[in-house]
């Protein structure tokens, strides 16, 4: 058997997942549409006053981002679990946490990244001040991979279950709270034209921890689910 | 120490240990609960500021302490179960979780009932209340994950992983909530200062904490015994035990 | 004793509702979890006993068949 480098393993798992997502456009478009619809619902529910919307915009954008990330989470391992390739990944001689890292990155590229790119447009819908746009994009850029990492733990724990979807949100949403708090507070601070480096640094630190710890937790959860 | 601890990884020995410990915990619970509640409700002096409403402290503080204590012991058991693959530790995780959830629920309900006369609202988005609520969600997560699996072996391991992930997140959640709270509304609520508490109130409080700790111990042991019997029910020692009518 | 009479004790200086609400709900929850644990244990024992009896019957039936 030909030996492959870890990088080759990472890139092949990653490109497989991304290619699959791009072939089925709906996987990329649906979370975005969901994001947009949730954001549309809020002005309809609370009223169209620009000042009120601008005050609530960070929270709304982030809650919408949380929910639309949740939408795609179930798919991370579900298809691979059903067709048995997940079992192959676990049985392969390569470290499972590495292929898990590749899968999570692929999930972020297909759901998180489009949200980051579209965020300025959605922020305009909510009358967010121009000075807060940068903070919105930056927090989403650091925060959405974090969401993918934490969410993948929940997805891995519930992948073997028939009705895992709702259970997964129950498991994952409480763990999302710190991300939500620091991200919205960064946007809030920036809209008051203050320095928001501190919040971003904390988000970055959480992302660094998640990068190291989450793949381990995810792979042990996958081993439990598959066995 | 390992030599001394190792036999308890065997289900039968662990079951016997539960049986030996149970009476002690039961006595502590019954005595302390009776003394603590009567002392707290009838004999402790009224607070000069909060009058008699402060008597809720005698169940609020113990349940809040035990809700976190139960989570940490659950997480320790989960780490032991994952690292050394000890089945009994998994069972302990599952036995502690419902008790911890009950403690958290009590802390929340009594907190609300105390908050209404003192702060004028049943619920305030205070940092401690919020992290307590999130703690309840974490307990529910562990419990519902466990019950969602059909195969109880993988259910136990999955619940352990979730408990460990939760305990890593718990400090982050706690500090972020505290930070969020100070940012959003400032220190509007002055909390009851426990360090300056008078001995006449401190003693019944300590006794109540002991009572709640004993209660957590009693119920955990009963549930742990159940779990051990459940997963060993085809073994001869269980047959013999139940055949004897125990 | 801090209270002169039973009615004063129940009133808790005007905070009776809140104090008894918390103590009441606390006792309900404590009792509920304690009793449910005991009931589980009883149920489990009955299950095992039933299983043992069933196995006994099967054994007997097999012996009779052989005879």
UniProtKB/TrEMBL annotation, chain B:
GO cellular component annotations of the record: plasma membrane
Q: Give the residue spans that cross the bilayer.
A: 21-44, 56-84, 91-113, 133-149, 161-181, 201-224
Mind listing the GO biological process terms from this record? cytochrome complex assembly
Asked if the record carries the keyword Membrane, the reply is: yes
The protein's superkingdom reads: Bacteria
Q: Which residue ranges does the record assign to the Cytochrome c assembly protein domain?
A: 7-184
Location(s) in or outside the cell:
Cell inner membrane; Membrane
Q: How does it sit in the membrane?
A: Multi-pass membrane protein
Q: Which InterPro entries match?
A: Cyt_c_assembly, Cyt_c_biogenesis_CcmC, Cyt_c_biogenesis_CcsA/CcmC
What UniProt keywords are attached to this protein's entry? Cell inner membrane, Cell membrane, Cytochrome c-type biogenesis, Membrane, Transmembrane, Transmembrane helix, Transport
Among the GO molecular function terms of this UniProt record, one is:
heme binding
What the record says about family reads: Belongs to the CcmC/CycZ/HelC family.
Functionally, this protein is described as follows:
Required for the export of heme to the periplasm for the biogenesis of c-type cytochromes.
Q: What is this protein called?
A: Heme exporter protein C
- Species of provenance: Pseudoalteromonas caenipelagi
From TrEMBL, chain C:
Q: Which UniProt keywords apply?
A: Cell inner membrane, Cell membrane, Cytochrome c-type biogenesis, Membrane, Transmembrane, Transmembrane helix, Transport
Q: Which domain of life is it from?
A: Bacteria
Membrane-spanning segments: 15-35
Q: Which Pfam families match?
A: CcmD (PF04995)
Keyword S-adenosyl-L-methionine in annotation? no
GO biological process terms, alphabetically, are:
cytochrome c biosynthetic process; cytochrome complex assembly; heme transport
Q: Which InterPro entries match?
A: Haem_export_protD_CcmD, Heme_exporter_D
Using the UniProt record, give the first listed, main subcellular location: membrane
Question: Which GO CC annotations does the UniProt entry carry?
Answer: plasma membrane
Which membrane topology term applies here? Single-pass membrane protein
Compartment list:
Cell inner membrane
Under PANTHER family, the record lists: HEME EXPORTER PROTEIN D (PTHR37531:SF1)
What does the UniProt record say this protein does? Required for the export of heme to the periplasm for the biogenesis of c-type cytochromes.
| NCBIfam families, sorted | cytochro_ccmD (TIGR03141)
Similarity comment: Belongs to the CcmD/CycX/HelD family.
Name of the protein this chain belongs to: Heme exporter protein D
Q: What is the lineage of its organism?
A: Bacteria, Pseudomonadati, Pseudomonadota, Gammaproteobacteria, Alteromonadales
């Amino acid at each position: 058997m030909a030996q492959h480098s870890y990088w080759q393993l990472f890139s092949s798992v990653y490109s497989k997942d991304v290619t699959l997502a791009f072939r089925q456009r709906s996987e990329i478009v649906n979370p975005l549409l969901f994001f947009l619809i949730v954001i549309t619902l809020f002005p309809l529910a609370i009223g169209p006053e620009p000042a009120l919307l601008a005050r609530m915009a960070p929270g709304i954008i982030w809650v919408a981002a949380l929910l639309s990330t949740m939408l795609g989470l179930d798919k991370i391992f579900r298809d691979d679990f059903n067709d048995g390739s997940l079992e192959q990944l676990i049985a392969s001689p390569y470290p499972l946490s590495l292929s898990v890292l590749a899968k999570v990155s692929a999930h972020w590229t297909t759901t998180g990244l489009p949200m980051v790119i579209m965020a300025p447009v959605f922020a305009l819908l909510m009358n967010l001040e121009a000075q807060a746009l940068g903070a919105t994009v930056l927090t989403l850029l650091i925060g959405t991979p974090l969401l993918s990492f934490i969410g993948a733990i929940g997805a891995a724990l519930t992948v073997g279950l028939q009705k895992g979807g709702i259970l997964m949100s129950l498991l994952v949403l409480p763990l999302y709270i710190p991300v939500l708090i620091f991200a919205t507070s960064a946007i809030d601070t920036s809209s008051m034209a203050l320095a928001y480096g501190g919040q971003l640094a904390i988000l970055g630190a959480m992302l660094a921890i998640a990068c190291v710890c989450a793949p381990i937790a995810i792979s042990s959860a996958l081993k439990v689910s598959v066995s | 120490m390992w030599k001394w601890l190792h036999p308890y990884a065997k289900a039968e020995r662990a079951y016997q240990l539960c049986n030996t410990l149970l009476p002690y915990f039961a006595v502590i619970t019954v005595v302390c609960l009776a003394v603590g509640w009567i002392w707290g409700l009838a004999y402790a002096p009224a607070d000069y500021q909060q009058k008699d409403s402060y008597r809720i402290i005698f169940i609020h503080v113990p349940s809040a302490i035990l809700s976190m204590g139960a989570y940490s012991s659950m997480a320790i058991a989960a780490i032991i179960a994952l690292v050394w693959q000890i089945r009994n530790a998994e069972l302990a995780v599952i036995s502690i979780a419902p008790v911890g959830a009950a403690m958290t629920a009590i802390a929340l309900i009594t907190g609300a009932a105390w908050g209404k006369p003192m702060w004028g609202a049943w619920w305030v988005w205070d940092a401690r209340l919020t992290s307590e609520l999130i703690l309840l969600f974490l307990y529910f997560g562990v419990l519902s994950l466990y019950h969602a699996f059909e195969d109880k072996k993988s259910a136990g391991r999955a619940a352990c992983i979730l408990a460990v992930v939760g305990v890593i997140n718990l400090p982050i959640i706690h500090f972020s909530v505290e930070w969020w709270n100070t940012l959003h509304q400032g220190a509007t609520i002055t909390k009851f200062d426990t360090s300056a508490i008078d001995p006449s109130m401190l003693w019944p409080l300590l006794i109540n904490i002991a009572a709640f700790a004993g209660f957590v111990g009693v119920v955990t042991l009963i549930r742990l015994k159940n779990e051990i019997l459940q997963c060993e029910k085809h073994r001869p020692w269980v047959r013999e035990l139940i055949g004897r009518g125990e | 004793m801090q209270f002169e009479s039973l009615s004063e004790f129940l009133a808790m200086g005007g905070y009776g509702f809140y104090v008894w609400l918390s103590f009441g709900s606390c006792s309900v929850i404590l009792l509920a979890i304690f009793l449910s644990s005991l009931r589980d244990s009883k149920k489990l024992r009955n299950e095992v006993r039933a299983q043992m009896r069933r196995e006994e019957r099967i054994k007997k039936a097999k012996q009779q068949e052989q005879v």
